[in-house]
Amino acid sequence: MRYFFIIIVLLLIIPLQLLYLYSKNHQLGTVAGITSQEQEVENSVSIGEYHFSLFGYTSPQAEVTFNGQGIFDQTISDDTGYFELKNRFSPFSPREACLSAKDQLGRLSSSVCLPAFPVKYNVRIGPVLIPPTVSLDKNVYYLDNGVFLSGQTVPNSEVELSMFTQNKNKFEARSMKFETNSNSKNSNDQNGFKNLVFNILNIVSGFEFRISDFRLNKPVEAFSFPDLTAKTDAQGNFSFSLPSSSPEKFRLFTQVSYNKDLSAESVKLNFQIYPWWMLIIRFFLFIFNILKSRWLELTLAAEILYLAWIILKQPMRAIMVRKKYPINYFPISS
Fold it and tell me: Is 58 helix (H, G, I), strand (E, B) or coil?
């Protein structure tokens, strides 16, 4: 009776689940109540009377885009990284516009926004130094994994790397300051009191450090590393190999120095170095996310297998055969 009830429930639930999966994976590309309408769209372009020319430097064979309100133009840099937008029509009114570049690997640079330039006469703008394009070789790093940063910019130029991390050793500077200020008095009693207070502060600071990772609103403090430099090759390629000896969060950007001019900051990249045990946790999270996205299919498969097991299950009956013995009657002696 119990198995019969389970079979009835599964036979009702499984078709509904199959219908839901079919409707989820075969959605029509139309929306109820909306029909296609044909409308005529007029496109109009207005240009000014005067011209402007814009030139600068970026990585070789990069796609340079000059974009703003009422302004759009593109060009390709040459093998030396030089580009020029020559004799383009100026807009009717002064407007801001931004320059950006996409290198040969499809990486985008940060934008360099120019102030509004005069439109009442012909102007020549430049040189504009577009920031380098950068990328990391991985999305996730673990201890003792090499961090490899690469990018492209002006050939035969110098690239500066700026790198920052969160400064967690906040108490070290505070304790050093306390120790320095306390050296002005040399009394033995004061030294004993000093050591006691210093030990208490160490304990409190250690406790504060341990619970600081669980705070929702933590103060943002940055500690910068010494700037690193690299030289680009003839194709504008450069790379940095960074250590990963401690689990930390890092933020970095690059700038190119060319003809004694320093470019704006590149796209800022953030990455984190995880301890080795995070590899195990991330593996189980990966498995959980896969199962989570397919929970309905897995449940449906389990229900079908269980239903088949109930239907195909053969009842096992035990038959006991007993040997018949004759019944003997014995007289009762008095």
Answer: coil
pLDDT tens column, 211-224: 444 444 444 445 55
Q: What is the pLDDT of residues 43-84, one digit of tens each?
A: 444 455 788 889 999 999 999 999 888 788 899 999 999 999
Angle among Cα 316, 320, 323 to the nearest 5 degrees reads 165
| 141/144 Cα distance (integer angstroms) | 9
Alpha helices, DSSP H only, in 130-249?
170-182, 188-212
Q: Is the distance from CB of 59 to CB of 77 less than 8 angstroms?
A: yes
Task: Provide the pLDDT for residue 210.
Answer: 40
Provide the pairing of β-strand 237-242 with 147-152: antiparallel
- Quote the CA–CA distance of 20 and 295 in Å, as a whole number: 13
Q: Where are the domains of the chain?
A: 51-131, 134-167+219-279, 170-212
Same fold, 51-131 and 134-167+219-279: yes
Report residue 249 as tokens.
Answer: 């969060």
pLDDT in tens, 148-179: 999 999 999 999 999 888 654 433 333 333 33
* Alpha-helical segments (H) within 213-294: 277-293
User: Degrees (nearest 5) of the Cα angle 67, 68, 69?
Assistant: 145
* Mean pLDDT, residues 282-293 taken together: 76
How far apart are alpha carbons 147 and 242 in whole angstroms?
A: 5
CA angle 43, 46, 50 (to 5 degrees): 160
CATH fold of 51-131, please? Immunoglobulin-like (2.60.40)
Coil/strand/helix, residue 174: helix
Q: E-strand spans in 69-174?
A: 71-76, 82-89, 97-102, 112-114, 123-129, 133-136, 141-142, 147-152, 158-166
* Predicted model pTM: 0.58
Q: Give the whole-angstrom CA distance, residue 228 versus residue 230.
A: 7
Quickly name the fold that domain 134-167+219-279 has.
Immunoglobulin-like (2.60.40)
User: How confident is the model at residue 75, as a pLDDT?
Assistant: 92
